Amino acid sequence: MTIRRIGIVVKEGLPGAPDYVSKLTAWLRDRGVEAISEQEASREQIPNEVDLVIVLGGDGTLLSMADRIGQAGRDIPILGVNFGSLGFLTEIRIDELYPSLEAVLNGEAHFDERLMLRAEATRAGQPPDARIVLNDVVFTKTALSRMIELSVSVSGSFVTRVKADGLIIASPTGSTAYNLAAGGPIVHPVVDALVLTPIAPHTLTNRPIVIPASAIVEVQPLVESETDDVFVTYDGQTGYALHQGDVVRVERAKQALRLVKAPARSYFEVLREKLKWGER
């Protein structure tokens, strides 16, 4: 992989961001690599113009770029740098930035390949809306006091009607996001699977389920009136209301996302630090 142009994306409000970008741009220039910042191209444009994206910030910023890379259909890796506590996605610390980047430029870096999800919504009076996401597709209620009802099918077979505050369809990467907070299982990133997790289900026997990544999940909202909307969100970034008769189809995306691995740090080390396993 030859790296000629690198995009630099920074978390909004990151202290000292201009200095970090300036030093990083000069470091890359000294090695014959052009840096493209958000002052020169938008986040939507960057995936089409570079060979690698560096994210300076947290997991949310990385998610926003992962979704844009997926939407652009590009196979370009992300090097995520965390400036606070270790992230599940931005697991490279600031002091590891340049050694990790050097390894990428020298062809010595290792990558994690992460499954992504493709969601396509069919809504009355609207053209089909297709999204590529890294973490999850989430269905929630719009009224605070009401639960929602969803019809769920997997690969053409009816599974159940979920009566709950919502439903999460997560990738293995997304299993440590909203899915974890809702009581869903942690799924190692190399496991080829999807997770369906109800949010505060009305029936206690309605539990999370892990299904093959080859499955196709279809979700239909079952609403009684126009005021009982169901809201769908994609990676917590964007979303819209769904109505009776609408269908959202979720499946494994054709492309995967590549993340530059942190040097000498395993997935379980990240879990231990983030979830404070073994601490009293």
Q: What does the model show?
A:
The structure is a single chain. It contains five helices and 19 strands. By secondary structure, the chain is of the alpha+beta class. It folds into two domains: 5-114 and 256-275, Probable inorganic polyphosphate/atp-NAD kinase, domain 1 (Rossmann fold), CATH 3.40.50; 117-252, Sandwich (Tumour Suppressor Smad4). The strands form four sheets. It has a six-stranded antiparallel beta sheet. The longest helix has 14 residues, at 59-72. The protein is globular.
* Shape annotation: globular
The radius of gyration is: 20 Å
Question: In CATH, what is the homologous superfamily of the largest domain?
Answer: Probable inorganic polyphosphate/atp-NAD kinase, domain 2
Beta-strand portion reads 35-45%
Number of helices: 5
Strands of the widest sheet, in order across it, are 8-7-18-15-10-11
Task: Tell me the number of strands.
Answer: 19
Output the CATH topology of the largest domain. Answer: Tumour Suppressor Smad4
Number of self-contained structural domains: 2
Could you name the key traits of this structure?
Rossmann fold, alpha+beta, 280 residues, six-stranded antiparallel β-sheet
